[in-house]
Design a protein that fits this description.
There is one protein chain. This protein has helices spanning 7-34, 39-43, 50-53, 56-67, 71-84, 90-112, 116-143. By secondary structure, it is mostly helical. The longest helix is centred in the first third of the chain and has 28 residues, at 7-34. The two termini are 18 Å apart.
């Protein structure tokens, strides 16, 4: 049976995405009520967006939730490739944990004080880790692994 270690950060990132979903709605729904937003009117008026109606601090959580459905989807696919090829232990699992830790840190920065250059630095570092994982997956698939 292939090593399960690489799947642990996958599950953690999926769970974190749901934590961000909860945080988003825990702040967004009260803010929408306070702003007296009518969802149906909002849906039918392309000029009115929640970014224009709600406070930025509320929207930061929503933006981050959306970001967790972008680059991390590549991580999920690569992690599955590493798992299926039996290359999901050791350094790949450590890199997977590093990637997830950086994405969680990115979320916390974006959802709280949202300094763009801090966020960008974390994002860039997580992207480099993801590139390393992609290279390891490519080696496993095209060259038969680390042997």
């Amino acid at each position: 049976m292939p090593e399960l270690s690489i799947l642990q950060p996958v599950v953690v990132l999926a769970a974190w995405t749901m934590i961000m979903w909860l945080w988003m709605y825990a702040t967004r729904i009260p803010a929408m009520q306070a702003a007296q937003v009518e969802p149906d009117k909002l849906a039918n008026d392309p000029e009115t967006t929640l970014d224009r109606v709600l406070p930025p601090g509320v929207q930061w959580k929503a933006h981050n939730y959306n970001h967790l459905h972008e680059a991390p989807t590549v991580f999920y696919a690569v992690a599955l490739v590493l798992f299926l090829t039996g290359e999901g232990d050791g350094r790949t699992a450590i890199l997977g944990c590093a990637y997830v830790g950086l994405r969680i840190l990115h979320s916390l920065v974006q959802a709280t004080f949202n300094k763009v250059m801090v966020r960008f630095g974390i994002f860039a570092l997580s992207s480099i880790v993801l590139m390393a994982l992609i290279a390891l997956a490519a080696r496993a698939v095209f060259l038969g692994g680390t042997a």
